[in-house]
Each structure stands twice: as structure tokens, then as C-alpha cells.
Amino acid sequence: MTEPQYMRLSLSDDEESVISSVSSRQRRELRKEKLRGHTKSQAYGLIAFLVTIAFLSMTILWGIRSTAGPPVSIFSKDRVVTSAANWRLDTNKEYSIKNQKWNYDASPQVREYHWTITDILAAPDGVVKNMTVINGQFPGPLVQCNAGDTIKVHIKNEGAEPTSIHFHGLFFKNQNYYDGATYINQCEIPPQHEYTMEFKVDEEQWGTYWYHSHYTTQAADGLVGPVVIHSKKEIEALKDMYDEEMVVLVGDHYHARGSEYMEEYLAPDNENAEPVPDNGLIQGANVFDMPDDYYLNATFLQEESLRHVFKFRPERKYRLRVINVGFFADLDFTIDNHNLTIIEADGTTVHPVTVDVLNIASAQRYSVIVNTNVFDVKRNMFWMHAKLNEYCFDHLNEWLRYDAKAVVLYVSEWDEVEGDYSAKLDTKSEEYQYVRDVFCRELDETLLHPLFHDPPPKDYDENVRLDAWFHIGDWKLDRGQFNDTTYRPWLPSSSLYHIAKNTSETEKHDGNATPMIQSHVPYDDNFLVSVNKPGAVIDVLINNLDDGSHPFHLHGYKFWVMMVGSGNFRFEKYSQIAEKFNATDDLEEGGYFMKRDTIMVPGYKWALVRFVADNPGVWPFHCHIGWHMEAGLLMQFDVLPEEYKKWDYPEQWTELCDIQEKKYTQVFHEVTDATTKGPN
Questions:
Q1: Which class is 462-503+514-649 in CATH?
Q2: Which class in CATH covers the domain with range 91-447?
Q3: Over the chain, what is the mean pLDDT?
Q4: Where do transmembrane segments lie in this chain (predicted)?
Q5: Res 391: pLDDT
Q6: Which of 53, 261, 361, 621 could covalently link to 330 via disulfide, CB atoms 3.0 to 4.6 Å apart?
């Protein structure tokens, strides 16, 4: 067992020597910690004495080892006992895709799923947390289908909060109401209510996707899972590249519910101070090496945690569908002694590119090929790493274990692998030695080129400039901004509901609702761009005026990445795009321009993306860092409203908005009455 690590109260000489390599805010935090160590040593001595007395008292009461369940963090707000239920999903079984047995030629059919959403107590890394999950297990179940199939999901919400489910990256062609973006194109699913989503998967959409809650910070609490869309077209192009495939979920992890961080995060004079994760997970599991002064009984919890074990056959080719389901951090994905060959990004099949390290931002997905070596009994275990990029964090979290690990175990054909290999392993593997990035940036987009012919239109109809930034130093709430506007829900219902149900432009300004706009002029509360021309080609210039990187995601579409750069974008650069069109012959039929649904834009840089507005609905465009989305870094594209006003909306969808309107109308009245009457 790992030796306990104790809280350090001052900087070591080595720490002082590397201060220059971190951000100014991090340096301030380090030096503050040092100052506190010098000025409060007597206070800490007293605290240590009192904690010792308290610990001895509790030991007498509990015994040397408590039989009432794992202890609770001394910093925890709630004293809870872990559930005895089998909450951990068997991802070795559930996420292993038997591609030899999958019927790629099957006629289009309905793939049906039944999900019950509940709140449970679970400990993905050994630390007990209140989580929101599907069917009592974490992470969520795999959804599989063929392109052209219909997915039908029955959702029963037995949790304490409202919820929603968004299938990230799916088009929902002419079914915008199933996109699941709460307050934008769907109303919340209340507790003790049921809701069914039934949508057709586009015949030209395949690859790796995922689903997650789109209700406040709920995705940080466990409501996530993978989606794989198979295609005969793709498998014929890639069939000789891999023998087996599996889904790999990676991401950051917090020890408290996301909602517990929001008040402090949005507080004035707290700009860009996003809550820093406590750990990282691979397949929903990891080990948290807890110092004794973090938890009262670290030993017990340590025994309850584990690392995931991947069982690979020697001399085989594996397709790993890697998904960053984290709420905040981008990360570096590696496997010791193995290269990674990228063949897919965000559902777009690409020309193979081999890398040693895969940088993946929140919400992005990559398929990589891993070739296993000849079996060697002396060297049959290797570390898989998902290293959170701590340089993306505003401040230091002393408890953070940034290097999430899993085990890649070579097994022979006749081996029956049993037991827990995750506790303490001597893998004898060699970690790839590289200088970790001191910036937040994704894989170089210029490395990726689509395998199939799908070039963008050569000309655009409209250019939308989005300046993204946060309030700095003006003692306001920590709100994200697009063009000086910050998103707030259009209560008491949703954007789609309001616009679809109103027949005149004048009705779009409701006294109880946040005003929406029909132009590109920024207003105080929201930024909504209406597109009324079917098939209009829209260029979106994303200008990141913030010092941090942002993974921007567009619902309902994939966009072509036309160009990225630093400094100010000048329209003369469009001539360079024309040159790229002329260079596509060198890339066979696939074309030069990468197509995806989520792009990382580094601090003080820009990206120009292009999409064809042919999918009616109200579609969010937002930063996929959960904290930033909650802070309002979101705008909306209102595409072809005259078309979606003619739709017949599902009865259950309308009922959700009726329930939500009653809820918030009552809240408005209560607030108004309290304001009018004043204090008692």
C-alpha cells in the first residue's frame, strides 16, 4: 500500500525552483501557502493536537476498523455511508464490441433502451460521493446501432433533481426537440416523471459519440455513457486495420457534487477560478492516494478502490474508442511502449496518423489503433495513462492526482484471467518520455484529414463573429460572454417552445421571459442568430479573447475547420482558404478540411469554422467546459424557424414544458410577492 502523503504547509526548495514554470495565479497560491506555514505554525500545532485527541476518541467509539462503512472526509458537508449495491458497471463486458458478430447489413430497426435515473452512493476512486446514474450503475451503458437505425430510450427519473439526456454529436435531423438541451430545445424532466425519446440516426452518420445530462452540473455527477454508430461504409474501409474494438471512457472526477461548487465559482472577484478536479478516471475507476489528514481512515477507502484492467491478446490490433467525458480538464492519453494510430475524430473517419500522445479535450472522441506485441511472460503488463493537464487550471489542488492509470494486461488465448490486478503492480513498462504541454491546446488539427469525400462549400453566405471572454476585475458575477452577452434560460419554458408556439415576431418579447434577438446585434441577456435561408453557408469566427482554452461544441451539426490562428483575424486570410481548396488533390478524395463537432480554441487565438444550415431547430453553440457553460458561455442558432413551426411536436415533449411553466410561474409569483411585501 502506498505510504500516506501528508499535507505540506510550506514550499520545498524544489518547489521554489519551479515556480517560474507555472502561472502567476498558481505562484501566488504557492507563496500564500508558504506564508501561512511560517505565520501559523503554532495554530497548526494546536490543531494537530486537537485532531489527535478527536481521532483517539473516535477510534475508541468505532474500534480499530469501523464496521459501519467507510469514513467520511473531514471536509465533507454530508455524512453518508456507501451503498452496498453493485454500482460498478462491468465495462470489460459492456464496452467490448464484438465486431465479428455485429450485423452491419441488418435492415434499419428500432434499438430500444430502458433507463431509470437514480441517486446512489458510489466511490469510483475510493472516495464516497453522491452520484446520479443510469440503472444504478456507473458509468452508463453503451448504446449501439447502425447508421439509419432508430434509437428509442425510455427514461424514468427517480432522482432528486430534474434531468435531461443529450446525445452529443448526433444530428437529430428534423427532430430538434429530442436534442435534450434543457431550457433551449427541451424542458427539464422532473423527478418522478417518465419521458421517451425516439429519433432516427442519420444514414450518413457513424463513429464514436456519447450521451450526458444537459441539466446544470449533473454530467459531473455520473450521468454519462458511450454511443457507437456502426456503418458498412466505414467497416469496409477499415476492416483490415483492427481485430477487436472497445470503448474507453476517460475524464476528470470531483469528490463533491457539481452543484456544491457553483456558488463559490460564480462569486464576484473569482474570475476564471474553475473548480479543480480531485482525480481522473479510466472506465469510471481509479485509485486516490489519500493522505491521513484528508480522510480519517484512508486505509479502508484505499482497499475499496481499484484501477481498471484491460485484457489484450498478444499480436492483435485493437480499436480503442477514446471519449473524454470529463467536466473540465483536457488530458493526454498514452499507453506505455505502444503507439496510437488515429483513424477517427468526432465521428469523422480520417487518414491514419500515428502519435505517441493523444491530447483530447472535454467532449472530444478519437478512435486509435493499438498493436499489441509478442507475448512475454516477463513483460505482460503496461500502464495506460490519462493525464489531466494541470496547466489548464487556475489554481492548485493539493489533493489532485493528475495521472489516472489503468492496466493493459496481455493474456494468452487459454488464460482465464481472474482476481484484482489493480492494486499494486510492477508493470516494468516504459512511460513515453515527453515534455508535458504548458498550454491548454488540442491535437494539431492540420494532422487530420477526412478519409471520405465531403468538402465544404467554397463560398459562404454569412459570417458570424463570436468574441468569447469572461468578466475580469469589475466585481460582477463570473459570467462567460459571447459578444458582450451572457446566456440565461428563457424561462419559464424553452427557446424552441417559445418560438415554435408564437406566430408573430412581436410575441417573441414576453414580459416574463428573457428577450431574444433576430439579428447579430448583441443585447443584454442573450445572443441568438436566426438563419432563414435553407442551406445557407454560415462561417463562424470564434475569437477567444480569454487566457484559457475552450472546447466549443455546436449541436445538430458538424462543421468544417477552415482555419485556425493567433492574434486578430483579417479577412484577407480567406485567400489562404482558396489555396487549400486547390491543394485537395494531394489528399485523394477526402479533402483537406477536417469536419467535427467540437474544437479546442486556445487562449488568445481564433478558429474559423463553416457549416450548412439545413437542419431546422434551435441549436446551442457553447464551451463544453461545464463550468463555463453554467457561467453563460453559450449562444444559440435559430435555424429555419418557419419550418419547425409547422412540426407536430410529441405530446410528452409539450407536457414537460407545461409542467416547467407551472413550476417557474409559481416561483416568479412567490418572488414577486416576497419583494412586494418585504421582510416580516
A1: mainly beta
A2: mainly beta
A3: 80
A4: 43-64
A5: 75
A6: 361
